[in-house]
Amino acid sequence: MEPEFWDKNPFKATAKAFSSGFHFKPTTINKTRTFYELILVDSNSVSITHFKDPKDQMLNTHSTIQILKVLQPRHFGSDLNKGRKFSVPFDPVGYTYWDYVDAWTKVFWHQNTRFKHSWLIYFKTNTVYNFPNWFLQWWDFFGPIPKIFPKQESRILADLRCFSRFALSWIFSWQYRYSKTKKKNQYPSLQRHEFVKWWTQFDSSKANQEQVKPWFQSYPEFLKAADPKTYVFLNQKSHLAAFLAGSKSKEVLTKNFKEVLQMLQLEEGSSSKKEETSSIEEEEDPFYQKEDDCFSIGLD
């Protein structure tokens, strides 16, 4: 924070530094937040709705943004620096792919005069998404965190693929804050802090166990591969069980029973030892240590 922009209230400090309506560096004055919102809407990437305060129609209390698709470079054209025109009159008349990438961040830098605006973000039901690599950085900042998930939900839902597949939603908001500094006579840096939380009115049954199981049956490649030794053991045990069940001769059954039993015990002992070792490793791994702002919103 530069001395000439300093104010103990960070919101007043940004008003000195940024142009009216901007909450990001205005490198080009006509590339406003509305410009970036139009990019996403005009490219059919999102659907956005702003909700007004019943007592003040100039105040946006919250907004919803439904993600319809995310354009990859190959979908834009051979020249990412070439402008694509809007379908409606606007200044600027168009945008490049790099403007499109920026739009996914800058569109969210909307704030009302009370600094109490929030976004409800969600995916479209029954839609297959293909995400470019840069969108993973967007997900890290704007996406949900496991801490906000309902207790009955599985951790698997933290994955971008599952959120998009099951059309899950979450709430995002942000505020200005100053960083803490230990040095005297040094102005703190101005930072943007993001917040996410679960939308309690969301129908989480869309992603319950009965909904998730069929999806993994259709995409078995996302299941953790079984241990080869365990697989061989189980397969062998199945064959041995079938052999014993199909033995018609009492003499054959008696002759081979001891050998079969020894094989099973040997394999089971090896498996149990492995499971015991695995259990110890897990205990040592620290990983194994023991306001809802949006109301009456229908999601498609």
Explain this structure to me?
The protein is α+β, with helices and mostly antiparallel strands and 300 residues long. It folds into two domains: 3-220, no CATH class; 228-288. Helix content is 37%, strand content 16%. The protein has nine helices and seven strands. Strands 1-2-5-6-7 form a five-stranded mixed sheet. A two-stranded antiparallel ribbon has the order 3-4. Helix 8 (228-246) packs antiparallel against helix 9 (250-284). It is globular. It starts with 9 loop residues before the first helix and ends in a 16-residue tail after the last helix. The model is unreliable at 153-158 and 267-299 (pLDDT under 50).
Topology of this structure?
Elements: H1 10-17, H2 33-42, E1 46-53, E2 56-67, H3 73-76, E3 84-85, E4 94-95, H4 97-106, E5 118-123, H5 135-142, H6 160-165, E6 169-178, E7 190-198, H7 209-218, H8 228-246, H9 250-284
Parallel strand pairs: 2-5
Antiparallel strand pairs: 1-2, 3-4, 5-6, 6-7
Helix pairs in contact: 2-4, 8-9
